Amino acid sequence: QVQLVESGGGLVQAGGSLRLSCVVSGRTFAGYGMGWFRQAPGKEREFVAAIWWSAGSTYYADSMKGRFTISRDNAKNTVYLRMNSLKPEDTAVYSCAAGPAFHGTRWSDYTYWGQGTQVTVSS
């Protein structure tokens, strides 16, 4: 059974940082892409970043470049999202996903999803 479990969310002040983790299990993800998405209350789900598991190549939404960094640790089967200089508008539920698309930016590019972790940025 494939599982993706996120952690690391919480309450942080504007300008602060958080590192989200997504532990994956149940299958080998070589040849798969991993992505982070977020959804704020009343807004559509938004692509944040993607990484190709085997090569480690990355892709970001334009608005996330420079502040967010996606990475993975093969030995720990974990994908990370480092978020710096956080703003109140970054408040959302952040979810990780796995799927066969290379640098997929759409919800439909992914097959497996985690439950999400809440990030709240106070002003």
Describe this structure in words.
With 123 residues, the protein is an all-beta fold. Helices cover 0% and strands 50% of the residues. The chain has strands at residues 3-7, 10-13, 18-25, 33-39, 46-52, 58-60, 68-73, 78-83, 92-99, 112-113, 117-122. The strands form two sheets. Strands 2, 4, 5, 6, 9, 10 and 11 form a seven-stranded mixed β-sheet that branches. Strands 1-3-8-7 form a four-stranded antiparallel β-sheet, with no helix packed on it. β7 and β8 form a beta hairpin. The protein is globular and about 40 Å long. The chain starts with a strand and ends with a strand.
Total number of helices: 0
First-last Cα distance:
40 Å
Using DSSP, what is the number of strands?
11
Gyration radius (Cα, Å) is: 13 Å
Biggest sheet statistics: 7 strands, mixed
Low-confidence segments, given as residue ranges, are: none
Overall geometry: globular
- Strand-residue proportion: over 45%
Return the average pLDDT rounded to an integer.
94
- The helix content is under 10%
SSE sequence, one letter per element: EEEEEEEEEEE
Structural class: mainly beta
In short:
With about 120 residues, the chain is an all-beta fold. About 0% of the residues lie in helices and about 50% in strands.
